[in-house]
Amino acid sequence: MIAPATSHPVIPVQGVFEFTESWDYKGIINRQNHRIRYSPIYGPGSNMLRTFIFCLDDVTDNDTDIDTIVALHGINTLRNAPQYSLIFETTSLGGEYGFNVSSEAGMEWVDVEYDSDMINASSSSYDPAIEEIYNAVRLSTIYSLPELYDNPIFPVNLAFPVHIANFVTQTGIVGHWRQINKDQTVINGNFTTFGADNPIFTGPVNETDPTNYAYPEDQWWPQFNVTVAQNVARTSRPRTHSLQVNFPFTTIVASFALVLVIFTFVKKSRRQIR
Question: CA separation (Å) from 217 to 140, 152, 205, 226?
Answer without folding.
Answer: 39, 53, 10, 19
